[in-house]
Amino acid sequence: MLESRPLKNLSVHLESLIKGRLWLQVIIGLVLGAALGVPLNPSTGLVSEDFSSWLANWLDLPGQIFMRLVQMVMIPLIFASIVSGIVINTSDNLKTFGLRLLLYFIFTTIISIIIGIVITLAMKPGQYVYSLGGLPNSGENVTIPIEQNDLFENVPLAISKLIPDNPLESILMGEMLGVVIFTIIIGVAITQLHDKTAQPIIRFTEAVQKICMIVVSWAMMLVPYAVFGLMAALISRIGVEIFLGLGYYMLVVITGLIILLIFYLMLVWLFAKKNPLKFLRAIREPQLLAFSTASSAAVMPVSMKTANEKLKVSTNISDFIIPIGATINMDGTALFQCVTTLFMAQAYGIELSIISLALITATVVAASIGTPAIPGGGVIILASVLQSAGIPIDGLIVIIGIDRILGMFRTVVNVTGDLTACLVFDRIYGVALTSTPTPARKAAKLNPMDDLHFEL
Hints:
Blueprint: H1 5-18, H2 22-40, H3 49-59, H4 61-87, H5 91-123, H6 148-160, H7 167-173, H8 176-190, H9 195-220, H10 223-237, H11 240-270, H12 276-282, H13 284-293, H14 296-309, H15 315-328, H16 331-347, H17 354-369, H18 377-388, H19 396-435, H20 439-442
Helix pairs in contact: 2-10, 2-13, 3-10, 4-8, 4-9, 4-10, 4-15, 5-11, 5-16, 5-17, 5-19, 11-16, 11-19, 13-14, 13-19, 14-15, 14-19, 15-19, 16-17, 16-18, 16-19, 17-18
């Protein structure tokens, strides 16, 4: 009787190779999911549309459970992480560090928008849409007045609304920017308390952070199945004709994102003094997870663990930067919004002046800061950008069809930007922040990563 030893040995070898390597499991899930999704697409004629839709919903289930588990603990995790990151600092460190971090985020966002403007004006994707049957009513010269004063008149109101008057409402509505600002204010206030009063609060927030990360470690067990199901469902629902009509536009967006990624690698090399290739190798897990889930929020716990264990970034730095970055540092989303705005202006034949481009830049910076860190968040905010530029929003119907694909790419860039910021600021502040903890923190030295056991 013949035994299938070679096949058995191969399966054992593959099992040992995959075990503990999340990045490899994600890649296998992506490939197998895409392979299953292609024949399930109704356009192939192999299955009916009803059966395809029914099966796609079931394939989506592990991914939806994973996303909901992570989103369930996201707000308490952001609250605990930011507070823990703030209380480690002295007041002087906090003022300098916080201001420079904000300026850094604004700087990288402006760079991403400049890349988007240059590449869109150079490649002109909007000129090819009409002949390919892209946007409705495109190809006509349209003259729409741009209200330049509206933006400036609304700035004071927009700034005042950054501070939530009802934090519970912000939490219930999922307004992450309001939650982050509320948390920062509370964290700074805690640093002003006496040590005896502050210690129980600090221990409580760190315990909350540990609990949230343990729940995330449970959710991570679903990742390979979630990636497989999400990719299979996505491919089964997207028609081939969408790629033919908007393929060049997608190429422009992805090219811009690659250029922005190269800019990050230059920052890693010049300022953080790290090898860019080793940096990419170290962050492959959060990048692949970002690509498969298209959600910065879902990747945040993995990014924190990667920053601490793979990049050797101080916990004091990563606990503060990554939760804030997942909310306001949306460079990939800003580039996407800029390219899409100019693309639709070209498609509708709208001429944009230098002043109009400057206004679009300012609007995109503000809009990207408020973009939800969830799949489809970029398109939700994009409508306000288009309206501010006087561009019809009808074309968003077409963009929504391919947004999930582009969202996967821009989320990779967003996550890479957060980890790049961690390296840059750890290079500048890592030693200083570690050596100057507040007295209250000295008595409550807990590392929220100590109890985690999920393997990357």
